[in-house]
Specification:
The protein is of the alpha+beta class. The chain is built from 4 helices and 10 strands, in the order ααβββαβββββββα.
Length: 226
């Protein structure tokens, strides 16, 4: 009986990971498209060398395909790559090719690594490596090479909103020299540490809670100033 169970496990594992890269991405896009809009509470903490900035609370609003708004009373360093850029990039079928990179276990989760390469000129994303949990159709990790912000690594954690593929925590690791800071942050750069700091990367941790999904958000809302 035990041998039979092992055979079943290996068989279904093989089926899960014998899909082509294109099939896996297509399934991922289908799940992404379940979310037409949402709002979510965000707690944002940035640890960027030479910059002093306090943690801030915000509300994030999103609507398909690329409407994105952050409402906060403080200064929020919030990269769009983990919220809209990757999903928009993947949704443009025919504008990239996928290359299978095999499997890897990340934080106890078996993932397929897929390299996505754009086939169109002037794409903001030059190269994307995705580690995908094919069983739950979730992106666990993304490693991006971009034109404007250098290299960005994004780690996702999921909890209550797994069915919609929405994370409850995102951690960005950014290239300090190339990452674009908001203009309002420029005055907070600590010049005394600029020459002594050897750290080349910084992190931005975003904890997300109280999602409101597919309740409808007007287009006009995204045009209004905060």
């Amino acid at each position: 009986m035990k041998n039979l169970l092992v055979i079943y496990f290996l068989f279904f594992s093989f089926l899960s990971f014998s899909q082509t890269s294109d099939q896996i991405i297509a399934q991922l896009i289908t799940k992404i498209n379940l979310v037409k809009d949402y709002s979510v509470k965000a707690s944002i903490k940035a640890d960027i060398p030479m910059i002093k900035i306090l943690p801030v609370n915000a509300t994030i609003y999103f609507k398909q395909k690329d409407k994105f708004k952050v409402v906060t009373k403080g200064i929020a360093i919030l990269p769009k790559q983990g919220f809209t850029d990757v999903s928009n990039f993947l949704s443009k079928k025919g504008s990239y090719v996928c290359v299978d990179g095999g499997t890897k276990v990340l934080n106890g989760i078996l993932t397929n690594m897929i390299t996505v390469i754009p086939t169109v000129e002037n794409s903001e994303i030059i190269l994307a490596k995705l580690w995908i949990d094919t069983k739950r159709k979730l992106i666990i990790k993304t490693d991006l090479t971009t034109r404007g912000s250098g290299s960005v690594t994004i780690d996702y954690q999921y909890a209550a909103q797994v069915a919609y593929g929405l994370p409850d925590q995102i951690i960005f690791t950014v290239d300090v020299k190339k990452f674009k800071m908001p203009k309002s942050v420029s005055g907070n750069v600590n010049q005394s540490n600029a020459k002594t700091s050897q750290k080349k990367t910084g992190t931005i941790t975003i904890k997300l809670s109280s999602y409101v999904i597919n309740k409808g958000i007007s287009d006009e809302f995204f045009k209004k100033k905060n």
